[in-house]
Amino acid sequence: MTICYLNEDFIELSKASISPLDRGFLFGDSVYEVLAAYNKNLFRLDDHINRLNKNLEFLGINLNLSDSEIKSILKEVCLKNLEKNQIIYLQISRGMEEIRNHIPKEDTKPTLFICSFEMKNVPNENNETIKAILSSDIRWKKSSVKSTSLLANVLYKIKAQEEGVDELLMSDAGFITEGAVSNVFCVNENRIFTPPLDANILPGITRKVIIEIFEDLNLNFEEKKINEEFLFKSDELWITNTTKGILPIVELDKKVIGNGIPGKLFQSVKQGFLKKIEDCKV
Question: Domain 3-118: which topology?
Answer without folding.
Answer: D-amino Acid Aminotransferase; Chain A, domain 1 (3.30.470)
